[in-house]
Amino acid sequence: MDLRPLLAPNDSKIVVILLDGLGGFADADGGTELERATTPNLDALAAEGSCGRAEVVGAGITPGSGPGHLALFGYDPTEFALGRGALSAAGLDVELRAGDVAARGNLCTLSSDGTIKDRRAGRIASAKARPLVERLQAEVALDGVEVVLAHEKEHRVLVMLRGEGLDPRVGDTDPQATGVPPHPFTPHDPAAQRTADLLTEFDRQAREILRDADANAVLMRGFDTLEPMPSFAERYGLNATSIAIYPMYRGISRILGMDVERQAADPAEQMEILRECWDAHDYFFIHHKATDAAGEDGDREAKIAAIEEIDAIIPAIRELGPDVVMVTGDHATPPQMRAHSWHPVPVLVWGGNTGRDRVTRFGEEPCSDGMLGLRRMSEMMPLLLAAAGRLNKYGA
Amino acid sequence: MDLRPLLAPNDSKIVVILLDGLGGFADADGGTELERATTPNLDALAAEGSCGRAEVVGAGITPGSGPGHLALFGYDPTEFALGRGALSAAGLDVELRAGDVAARGNLCTLSSDGTIKDRRAGRIASAKARPLVERLQAEVALDGVEVVLAHEKEHRVLVMLRGEGLDPRVGDTDPQATGVPPHPFTPHDPAAQRTADLLTEFDRQAREILRDADANAVLMRGFDTLEPMPSFAERYGLNATSIAIYPMYRGISRILGMDVERQAADPAEQMEILRECWDAHDYFFIHHKATDAAGEDGDREAKIAAIEEIDAIIPAIRELGPDVVMVTGDHATPPQMRAHSWHPVPVLVWGGNTGRDRVTRFGEEPCSDGMLGLRRMSEMMPLLLAAAGRLNKYGA
User: Model pTM?
Assistant: First the structure.
């Protein structure tokens, strides 16, 4: 449902605390990590507010980070998508803009006859790869477009072109095989001819610049651009900002047009930043990564500790006087699976006209008793706006 | 959501136990039949797994057998449909193929002036009707198409044409009245002209063959074909087989391209068959009819006994080592109503990465506390695939 005709801006402030990978499941050993954690402050929010559970994409569907965050921000992830290029750029804190073309690159080793000897240049060490990328960035020059290179790790590098009239419909040059030459840059649409020509010239210069290095060329795949997406401000009338520890989540926020605060080192610094940006914004996205990382490691104790770390900053957030607070995950990461999963994530909404239910403890099973029910994650955004008094009546 | 891009085949085995008409409702007399039944083995699955409830088509909508099974198999019954012809053929264990045209026929009695004297030939006894149908099958011959007749019961007979270029858009010949002649076979589309002509010739021969019998013609209605439907294997990457006591459910499985095992006499024989086909398949559909029949008879005690009969085979199923087991119904059949109903059916999922919830007893009310929540039945299929590790992540 298009909320724009209903938007009623006011002075309310909404805080969304996202514990990445928060959800989990109980097994013969007992409750989930959230249920085992000692969380007096989250429990107080639950007792004073309402709880429920959210499915992020759909029944049985395990979300990646892109769909997980889109749903959190109210963008139905079956309707909107962040391409791999956009996410790669986000993860490197590189801003991909609509019209830019990005690809994932591999530093590789070509034999003297131009065939591929090693697709990853012997998994070249980051310390050796980074100067090569810097040299390319300094020396490559293309006519009328800007080239942005961002070294990721080992042989991986993001290659981005920025300028007018670019088109991502270009075939991969990485043949995913050795002993053969790289594929040429093939336009899959006549509109992509110029982009293919520019990339061909990039490739020529790169081989020249790297001719004596261990890695002497760049294979590319997954050309992508940023599909234009309605901004968060446009959809909800909110002046949002993002306070995250990892570049990926700053990047996703940036794509939706949110402000992005400086990168924080830990939740304590996130609190500091929240205080600094409090007056200038009305929606605050606080992203906590450690819960997901612990889940991926299969470390239940670490996940419990990561949850408790967020519990500890809740009083400081409440002191700022937010009108509405939501705490949830972008997908489950059960330590039993060491991976993202499809399980519904617990949701807690506090403040405004949310109302309170019987749930007094924040956890998957208590949340299944909550008044918010089991619903799609993208429905939470209108519920937050409503709780904050920011949505007018629909129909007379 | 199209699951095909996410499918990740593995060696897991999924068992679905369908108690036809399982759901019911409590009234002043106390709990539902499932709640009153003694089901230690189903309760153990519930305790170790997760429970919930499913609405088969939508709120307040009472499903027929077609929509009930389509939903169970993950085909949204508001998007896919099994026509009456397809279901009639399935119920007679006749294979209707895409392109075949089937109709429901009535053996009838025409007066000497060609008007209808009795639309059901005096509800002719099956013993008298069957030889007439056999005679028609033996003697009718049409140019270029095969005729398949299947006697159902009393005056009812399935008429099916098989061949190239057939089209079901032909009007009913049964005028649903006596004292008037049958309608001619009218094509409702020029493409159905040949089909109408073939049926007219069938009718001419049938009247000739039956001229001295009590039933001397066949009225037809509900011309239908099998709409091509994506197969179960194509949608889910599963090699499924169907173990049923009634032809209808074998037929529905066959339409979806599942293998169909020999017809079983009772749950004990179904177990025998399950053991035989275990190694060659990875999805097993076990259909139990007695629950529905008891509900239709308004016999609560019989429905309780039918549920307990399935409970008794659970240990043998567990011994085979399935990865994921689901137990549910295709619709409710409350004995109080002696009919199918719209009430949500209880669902139990055990195994894989399902997780366990607090529900320790399989029943409608306990299931309403379960972590699977209240959802559409067609969502259970992706949940089973996910629990079995057969779905990759959606989005990066």
Answer: 0.89
